Amino acid sequence: MTAVQSEPPASPPEGRYGSGDRRFDRDADARADRTLRRVALVLGVLVAVGIGWYGWRSIADSPVSAQVVAFKAVSDQAVEIHLEVHKDAGSAVVCTLRSEDADHNEVGRKDVRLTQHAGQVDTVVTVRTTARGTTGELVGCSTASR
Q: What is the pTM assigned to this prediction?
């Protein structure tokens, strides 16, 4: 039987699988981690600022706020809605009101134009209905051109 001589394993080509000194690889990994953390922090701050700005603009740009104080079905053909509106003094506002029946079908709708010069307007609006209304709702308000 002949003896087989084993050769030492061949070393990989220089630079192909990283340097033989692992200290340099750890430093590069640490720098990459710090860079990624900084980028994530900057992006997180930008997203938070963007969300805050959008929320503030959507609230601040709304010069009209309104609410239904009370409503009452006065007959099978009408609902009275007490509406309170806060707006810029001297501006005109259009508010849309509606009434629904017990099955949540819309039975009445009305657009109300408020042109009073006061900043706060309290008014009672009668909405005609096709059946007995069980609710009086504010759909929305917006500023109107004069």
A: 0.58
